[in-house]
Design goal:
The chain has 70 residues and is mainly α. Helix content is 44%, strand content 9%.
């Protein structure tokens, strides 16, 4: 498995955890520790491409796409 594929799988697992914790807006965003992951993984461009955004205080949440929840 390539590194990129491994990172993509990790990001998808984090997204699943975010959905479970309802981290779906800036107000409900979670810290990496709450998500059970390292912040470096969330700071990758891949996380941003996969719909994960960071708040000013370094919490993370899933973004909406085309008016529908991810």
């Amino acid at each position: 498995m390539s590194l990129l594929a491994g990172l993509a799988i990790c990001i998808e697992l984090i997204k699943k955890k975010m959905k479970e914790l309802e981290a779906i807006s800036e107000e409900t965003a979670k810290k990496p520790k709450e998500l059970g992951t390292n912040e470096w993984l969330l700071r990758t461009g891949l996380a941003d491409l996969r719909g994960i955004k960071r708040t000013k205080d370094d919490r993370y949440y899933l973004v909406w796409k085309d008016e529908k929840h991810c």
